[in-house]
Amino acid sequence: MRARDLHPLCCLPVDYCPGGWCAAPAAGDRSPPPALNQQQPAPAPAVVAGVLHKWTNIGKGWRPRWFAILPGGSVLAYYKIRRRRSRAASSPPAPGDAGPRLIGPPGYAAEDRPIGLVHLKISSFRESRSDDKRFYVITPTKTLQLRTNSAKDRVAWIEALVSARSESSPIGGLLYDQNDVSFSTDRLRNRMHAEGLGEEVIRDCEQIVHSEFSQYSIQMKQRCEEYLSFLGSLPQQLEVLNAEDTTHSIKPECSCSGLGKFSESSNTESSDDAGAQELDELSDEDEYNFCDTRQSFSDSAASPVLRMKCSNSSNNHKSVESRSSNGNNVLVPSKRRTKLPEPVEKEKGVSLWSMIKDNVGKDLTRVCLPVYFNEPISSLQKCFEDLEYSHLLDRAHDFGLKGNSLMRTLCVAAFAASGYASSDGRPCKPFNPLLGETYEADYPEKGLRFFSEKVSHHPMVMACHCEGRGWKFWGESNVKSKFWGQTIQLDPVGVLTLQFDDGETFKWSKVTTTINNIIIGRLYCHHHGTMTITGNKQYSCKLTFKQQSFLERNPRQVQGFVEDMSGTRVAALTGKWDESMYYTVTQDIPGVNSSAGATLLWEKNEPPSNPTRYNLSSFAITLNELTPNLKEKLPPTDSRLRPDQRHLENGEYDKANSEKLRLETRQRMARKMQDNGWKPRWFDRDAEDGTFRYTGGYWDAREEGTWDGCRDIFGELSSNRTCTSVDI
User: Fold this and answer.
1) Maximum average pLDDT range among 140-154, 202-216, 250-264, 644-658
2) pTM for the whole thing?
3) Of 208, 204, 207, 202, which Cα lies nearest the Cα of 188?
4) What is the CATH number of domain 3-167?
């Protein structure tokens, strides 16, 4: 049976008819369908029927379909229209004849098989405010947008649907009578006679088979009753979810630009009208946030993971949890910005091809690219952006305290993949930090403090250190790049380390990033390669970022697995690095439900309501915010004080370009200082592995307000004196 023949909600094939099953040939079978009692059962007659225009997609628009409420009132079926009947064939039935109540114009004939079924017991209906002929049928998995021929017909249809829903029973007509089910043991008896067994043994075997079948029938009946009872309770559960204004609701799967356009055979159908206005209208009228059944109705083992988004991913922080000096948590009011400042000037476009042509034969190391190609954050701030979903590490810490090492590993894997979520649609590059440039991030609402510093100029290396709720994270970033004409390949070098308070440690390296269409076309990036997350205790993980091909229909996929120390795979991960990650437990693990199916582990936050051409996430918009109170506490090396970056954020593009040229000229002195034995201020090389480790003292210096040894890296450099260590 093809996937499109399955009903998206109840897994009923479209061949299903209330009261029985309509036989269908197997895929590829051209023979006549098998007969049942020498004749095929006729489809059940409709109670209410008529023609409605259904929105399909932008290409096909509105198409007439034959809709019918089937007997029992629990199912609304719709069919393609085969032809228009003659006037004689479309005449109403004679008195006494059984026939459906017809709404709308007569004279149509429908195909024999429905193309879709809707269970009315778990559906709701809404009228359009802008069109008195339009209404919506909303189910947990799809929304049908329908249009009648007149306002009167719309009223009649909605009344019929509401009446059918109220009169239908969630179990009516679907349960079978156990006494009606029988089977024969003649084949078993004949076989046992052929083997020479006695009559007494045969009767004992028949009794055992009958007993087992009876128990099986009872269990199947109980399962059927539980399933149908669950379906009957769905409307109440949906009403509760709709009433609770929380972030527990998980949006339906859709494209990043809006609800996707699907064909009629798709499980999820577009509720789009001819434009975005109808989308807004439907959202305003109904305010429905339907939950994916994989996420909301899994067992309790998944519920802590589902609560992560509710408790940790809000962007409007009305109250912030902060740590007082005595270690107690207190709530202090705070609110971070939600948009960038309005630009002062109108930005002028720049052609990269023209720049390359104008600088042929010149020393490219001395060519200053305009700020048009930059976004108003630095690479140091970009490092902290990878910690947007740090609540996954908080959850991992909590799972570890409960002895659930598998869920801890899964959360760490989701965190490692989530760092790429914000890279989608970011056409501009961050500012390269100057040697000695630093960045701090104190986010008490997330329970973490982050610090990073550029520790080497050639090669460019940035080191970072972060402390969270029961965990520490550190690492260094060094990228090797290769230019291939139309693409740039970035290969990260360096190890990221995550250590929990109980001593469990995970280490991994980032995968390769390829930036496409450098010269011509729309700029985009994709990530590919294998990420190995090595744990020092019970579990490790491997994530494969799928290579994106030109004709890839499902790009940005991530697949992986968790294995124990013996190499046995105990869980699988799947998803997309720019959307969400799911996990499935493949082995019986104490404390983890292995029968829940694919369960949501992480989901990308909503984009900001005020997007710019930089396409920064809501979290990234807060990274370069500089308030008067904060400015007094920052060292002179902090990225927020970098003038060209600040001018770009404010939309002062001419000033930003001149400052960028000045700072890059000054930066060329940095390599000489590095060759003369320059050392970072807050990091030092580890004697064992050669990586940069945080030496401490930054937050103490910040508390005291003393920045001894911090260089004025953004100030003016006099042309009549040589560069000293204080200057650089």
Assistant:
1) 644-658
2) 0.57
3) 202
4) 2.30.29.30
